[in-house]
């Protein structure tokens, strides 16, 4: 089994066995405590940045006839719902369908943005 490094109580480096970490896996061995701490801190900041990016995701969509505009957050929760004068031309059933379809489109838009952020993050972490 491959020998990696771990910290002793005195913060000095000592050899130890690490499961799932082979000699060719990048990121498994660090040369010093400072290097390890810097890597952990960098990842922590990147996780926080991802959280901020995900929190800022919005999806916005306007119906084809311009009657309804919907804005949702990254979880698909409704943030804003605007109607134009075009809604007066819609029947109650058309109005309902337009609102629901537009809200679904806005949510799909937000989910696609979230997926792109998470995919980019995973690619960064994987190296």
Structural write-up:
This protein has 127 residues and is of the alpha+beta class. It has two domains: 3-50, no CATH class; 55-126, Ybab, Chain: A. Helix content is 46%, strand content 21%. The protein is built from two helices and five strands. The chain has helices spanning 33-55, 92-126, and strands spanning 3-7, 13-17, 58-62, 68-73, 78-83. The strands form two sheets. A three-stranded antiparallel β-sheet has the order 3-4-5. A two-stranded antiparallel ribbon has the order 1-2. A hairpin with a 5-residue loop joins strand 1 and strand 2 (13-17). Helix 1 runs antiparallel to helix 2. Mean pLDDT is 83; it is low at 1-24.
């Amino acid at each position: 089994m491959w020998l990696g490094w771990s910290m002793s109580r005195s913060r000095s480096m000592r050899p130890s066995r690490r499961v799932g970490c082979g000699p060719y896996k990048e990121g498994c061995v660090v040369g010093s405590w400072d290097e390890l701490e810097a890597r952990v801190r960098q990842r922590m900041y990147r996780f926080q940045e991802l959280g901020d990016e995900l929190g800022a995701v919005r999806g916005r969509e306007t119906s084809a006839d311009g009657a309804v505009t919907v804005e949702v957050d990254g979880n698909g929760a409704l943030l804003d719902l605007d109607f134009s004068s075009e809604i007066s031309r819609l029947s109650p059933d058309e109005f309902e369908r337009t609102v629901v379809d537009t809200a679904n489109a806005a949510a799909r838009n937000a989910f696609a943005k979230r997926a792109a952020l998470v995919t980019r993050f995973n690619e960064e972490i994987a190296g």
